[in-house]
Amino acid sequence: MDNTPFVTGFGSTNVDLLYSGMPRVPQEGEEIYARDFTVQIGGGYPATLVNVGRLGIPARIQTFLGKDMFSRFAKAQYEEDGVIPLNLYTGDRMPVNVTSAVITPRDRAFTSYTDPVEVTDEHRQQVLEASRGAAVALVYRPFLPIYPQLRRAGTLLVYDGGWWEDMRLDNMADILEAVDFYIPNELEAMRVTQATSPGAAARVLAEHFEHVVVKLGGEGCLLYSGGRETVVPPLPGIKAVDTTGAGDAFLAGFVYGLIKGAPLPQAVLYGNITGAACVEKVGALTGFVTEHELLAKAQKYAL
Predict the structure, then answer these.
(1) Does residue 222 form part of some domain?
(2) Any domain includes 177
């Protein structure tokens, strides 16, 4: 039996078509050529798992893939980056989310399409079986019933659900009680707790978690543990080009630290390094570090 630690998670696959270097968004009937173009897997847990795979940690994703060209591209990309995909989709349409992004010097515009898939009990059972034995599982709320079994078996549960308008402690109690780590950014943390600062939000979250991690964007990351608040600073000299996927990349570095048994400040530093690499390029997965580069930077910027 292979006992190599691995990371697992469900994530709906996004494929991003990125048109960058556009002077402006074209008007109806107008064609404008971009200076650069790339196709890649988009943000969310899929991007986190790809970054985990690039760091040399075995990763598994459960997702919905069809027979269309974008699904085939995503499957090949996962496998190339060391992520084992389990396809839960049995339909005949296109379950991946495809987004065309026009990126101008001022902002960006998006056009997207997907054919939504409803999560069923059969999907939950498939994800449970695929996740047994994982060192870390990325938690997705529709699969909440399966996580207690994984936790009892020793899997660490990590949740980064992103922003939603009605996020509050009272309507997130089920998921916050189910996980070991919740990784919000500062706006999400303040929204959930109704606090007026990241530090105040962390103190509220500390009533639910032994260790609290709050991402601060360009200001680094706040770690609240044992009644002490520590800010792990950002890497110096980072020129952010595109913050898309920064949180997903941070999560990959943080999970790497958990897998390796690193002290939490060190795991947060790993997250800062992977997040910084992401924002220096356009797209969620263009900028990244290898394990060797990660460890070299961690040594250079040791806490």
Answers:
(1) no
(2) no
